[in-house]
C-alpha cells in the first residue's frame, strides 16, 4: 500500500514558522516521492491568491513561493470552501492548479488507506 500525506495548514502570516513548516514538509515529502495533498485553511487561505506567497518572508526559511510552486507541480493544493467564502475568494481568484473543496473531500483524503494527516 502506498503512503501519502494530507497536510492541513491553518496558519499564515499570523504564525509564520508554523506556516512555513507545513509547506516545507509538503515539499520535502514530494521530493522524496511521497504523494501530498496540501490544504489551505484559515489564514493560509490567502496563499491561494496570486502574489500572496511572495509577500511572505521568514528569515532562514525556504521562500514560500518556491515551496508552493513545488507542491503545485507535483502534488495537490486545495483551498477550504468555507475559508474561501469567508474571505470572498472564488474559483476565478485562485492560482492555476488550486482547487476549492470542503470537509467531505478532506475527510475522504485523510482516512484513505495509507494516508497520514498532519495539521499545522
Question: How would you portray this structure in words?
Answer:
The protein has 120 residues and is α/β, with parallel strands linked by helices. It is built from four helices and five strands. It has a five-stranded parallel beta sheet. Helix 1 (16-31) runs parallel beside helix 2 (64-74). The chain is globular. The chain starts with a strand and ends with a strand.
Question: Largest sheet, order of strands side by side?
Answer: 4-3-2-1-5
Unreliable parts: none
Distance between the termini: 25 Å
Radius of gyration: 13 Å
Q: How would you characterize the largest beta sheet?
A: 5 strands, parallel
| Overall form | globular
**How confident overall, as mean pLDDT?**
97
Q: What proportion strand?
A: 15-25%
**What percent of residues adopt helix (DSSP H or I)?**
25-40%
Helix/strand order: EHEHEHEHE
Structural class estimated from helices and strands: alpha/beta
Amino acid at each position: 500500500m502506498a503512503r501519502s500525506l494530507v497536510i492541513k495548514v491553518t496558519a499564515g502570516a499570523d504564525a509564520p514558522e508554523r506556516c512555513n513548516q507545513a509547506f516545507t514538509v509538503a515539499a520535502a515529502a514530494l521530493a522524496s516521492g511521497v504523494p501530498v495533498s496540501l490544504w489551505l485553511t484559515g489564514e493560509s487561505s490567502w496563499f491561494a491568491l496570486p502574489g500572496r506567497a511572495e509577500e511572505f518572508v521568514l528569515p532562514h526559511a525556504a521562500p514560500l513561493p518556491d515551496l508552493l510552486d513545488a507542491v503545485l507541480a507535483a502534488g495537490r493544493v486545495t483551498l477550504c470552501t468555507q475559508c474561501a467564502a469567508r474571505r470572498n475568494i472564488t474559483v476565478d481568484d485562485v492560482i492555476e492548479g488550486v482547487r476549492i473543496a470542503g470537509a467531505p473531500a478532506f475527510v475522504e483524503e485523510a482516512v484513505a488507506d495509507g494516508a497520514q494527516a498532519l495539521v499545522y
